[in-house]
Amino acid sequence: MNKPVAHSNLGAIDAAHHLHPFSDMKKLNADGTRIIHRAEGVNIWDQNGKKYLDAFAGLWCVNVGYGRNEIAEAAYRQMQELPYYNTFFGTTTPPTTLLAQKIASHAGPTLNRVFFTNSGSEASDTWFRMARVYWKVLGHETKTQVIARKNAYHGSTVAGASLGGMQWMHEQGNLPIPGIHHIGQPYWYAEGGDLSPEEFGLKVARELEAKIDELGEENVAAFVAEPIQGAGGVIIPPETYWPEISRICKARNILLVSDEVICGFGRLGSWFGHQHYGYEPDLAPVAKGLSSGYLPIGGVIVSDRVADVMIGELGDFYHGYTYSGHPVCAAAALENIRIIEEEGLVERVRDDIGPYFTEAWRSLADHEMVGEAVNVGLMGAVQIAADKATRRRFEKPDDIGTLVRNQCVANGVILRATGDRMLASPPLVISRSEVDQTVETLRNALDWLK
Ligand code: PLP
């Protein structure tokens, strides 16, 4: 048996051997690294025994909360029964197939099939190829270009990061790859100018139509967007936005891809974000809440429109991952969805804790440092403002967000900062008093800032 490593050594070992994702490499050191040891409900504990309320659900993913032994037991049972088999070459395993059925049962009438991946990033690569293959099979060889949005996040693989609209990511690795184009995002607070949110929603949606005209409809395969842009800062679109996007995709015959990696599995008080906004995607990548992060699994939900062509006309699809539909991950995801169903967590977000969170979170709008406090379900953003009246922002938005975030963490609540926006995305099981604690801690941090 391996000798257990004394906890006091972990920081030094980590500094010596572990390169972290999305971390400032200069700051990886023994003292600065937070080591999370255990978790229960919405709480996590670090190496010093300090407790935090995780109002970010890990990384937008622990929807059912921590410490669910049922999921651990389902994974354990599956590992004993069949720890691994591939799903290539016409093979499957029971939990993989049952999970596909379960996802389809919640996704909507035209979304009946799932292609499994290990992550949201791989789901991005998967639908990207699928969309191009779809048009090629139909004889539209030139329909290959994909339109995405500035400031979007769709993952860290080469296709995922290219589809994402984050320039600082593009600068590392010469991205985006050819064939991907970015249009504006519906970020009214920062970019809406004198327009009303409704007017602005229509204006940015129509950038899609302009981009299709520029590229030529015969060259465009798909448009991708998150129902609510998450990592970009919880950018909640005005009500006019999605109906117009949906209309344009239909009228111009391009596939609509709804990236449900964050919005899926209850976060907005609906099973999927597209249901909240009332549009029907052709492809929908998922991950995160699919297993509540207990094990890595993702996938692409595929509409009948696309699946019928692939099944009817393609033959082999030369794409897949060794662990696509991994039986242990699928068993964990099935148990996770069973908990969401049995405890009515989607309904809880829609009718109970979501409305409670809405009232508490939006109460921050009266704070003098807050430009807007917005949310849908349990996904919220607070915009920090230099001047509330004119919507003027601080010159160094990242610094402001980091200051407030660090203050919240020091006071025991994990929130995320994207630039000058403070983001919350707590587990769907968060209690009312834990919502109060989250909002109070953020309010105190904003008081401290002014
Ligand atoms: N798509 C969206 C909307 C995401 O937020 C993320 C991750 O944050 C991804 C895709 C990539 O998922 P993963 O980190 O599992 O590869």
Automatic annotation (TrEMBL):
<keyword id="KW-0663">Pyridoxal phosphate</keyword>
<dbReference type="InterPro" id="IPR049704">
    <property type="entry name" value="Aminotrans_3_PPA_site"/>
</dbReference>
<dbReference type="InterPro" id="IPR015422">
    <property type="entry name" value="PyrdxlP-dep_Trfase_small"/>
</dbReference>
<keyword id="KW-0808">Transferase</keyword>
<dbReference type="Pfam" id="PF00202">
    <property type="entry name" value="Aminotran_3"/>
</dbReference>
<protein>
    <submittedName>
        <fullName>Aspartate aminotransferase family protein</fullName>
    </submittedName>
</protein>
<comment type="similarity">
    <text>Belongs to the class-III pyridoxal-phosphate-dependent aminotransferase family.</text>
</comment>
<dbReference type="InterPro" id="IPR015421">
    <property type="entry name" value="PyrdxlP-dep_Trfase_major"/>
</dbReference>
<keyword id="KW-0032">Aminotransferase</keyword>
<dbReference type="InterPro" id="IPR015424">
    <property type="entry name" value="PyrdxlP-dep_Trfase"/>
</dbReference>
<dbReference type="GO" id="GO:0008483">
    <property type="term" value="F:transaminase activity"/>
</dbReference>
<dbReference type="InterPro" id="IPR005814">
    <property type="entry name" value="Aminotrans_3"/>
</dbReference>
